[in-house]
Amino acid sequence: MLTGQCLCGNVSFKYDGPLGPIALCHCSQCRRTHGSAFSASAPIQKLRFQLLSGDESIREYESRPGKYRAFCSNCGSQLYSRVDAIPGILRLRVGVINEPLQKGPAQHVFVGSKSDWFEITDQIPQFEKTERTNDPH
């Protein structure tokens, strides 16, 4: 069981299922959304994700046709993204999880558009675009 919340605590959730591989996405949309060199997210099963509070605080932004990025309207914390083409999967932003994850990132994706001010120095596999099919990052 994993739990999590946004920065202000308005939105809280629990997740009772497997956490997929963590991807560090360096695309320009993720960099802008997070104000950082990359985002860290993992796929989860929507059916096993339950909001405990703050449903009314969640807003979604359609960043491209059929892709939505969810965030807390009070504090701006990024929560997850989803795509219409894969209705049963969310990409949970792992920074909002309360518990230790017991695993690290599995891959860097979209390194072809990474920022020029960040150097990747680890040995995690890097992909110019992505190896994930129907990627909702």
Task: Give your account of this protein's structure.
By secondary structure, this protein is mainly β. The chain has a domain at 2-22 and 39-102: Metal Binding Protein, Guanine Nucleotide Exchange Factor, Chain A (Beta Complex), CATH 2.170.150.70. It has one helix and ten strands. The protein has one helix spanning 28-34; strands at 2-5, 12-15, 22-25, 39-45, 49-53, 58-64, 67-72, 78-83, 89-93, 105-109. It has a seven-stranded mixed beta sheet with strand order 6-7-8-9-4-3-10. It has a three-stranded antiparallel beta sheet with strand order 1-2-5, with no helix packed on it. A hairpin with a 5-residue loop joins strand 8 (78-83) and strand 9. The model is unreliable at 132-136 (pLDDT under 50).
Key descriptive features of the protein:
single chain; 137 residues; mainly beta; Metal Binding Protein, Guanine Nucleotide Exchange Factor, Chain A
Topology:
Blueprint (H helix, E strand, L loop, with lengths): L1 E4 L6 E4 L6 E4 L2 H7 L4 E7 L3 E5 L4 E7 L2 E6 L5 E6 L5 E5 L11 E5 L28
Parallel strand pairs: 3-10
Antiparallel strand pairs: 1-2, 2-5, 3-4, 4-9, 6-7, 7-8, 8-9
In percent, how helical is the residue content?
under 10%
Q: How would you sum up the major sheet?
A: 7 strands, mixed
In angstroms, what is the radius of gyration?
A: 14 Å
Strand segment tally: 10
> How much is the average pLDDT?
93
The H/E string reads: EEEHEEEEEEE
CATH topology of the domain at 2-22 and 39-102: Metal Binding Protein, Guanine Nucleotide Exchange Factor, Chain A
CATH class of the domain at 2-22 and 39-102: Mainly Beta
Strand order of the largest sheet: 6-7-8-9-4-3-10
Distance between the amino and carboxyl termini: 23 Å
- CATH architecture type of the domain at 2-22 and 39-102: Beta Complex
Strand content: 35-45%
- Principal-axis shape equals globular
Class derived from helix and strand content:
mainly beta
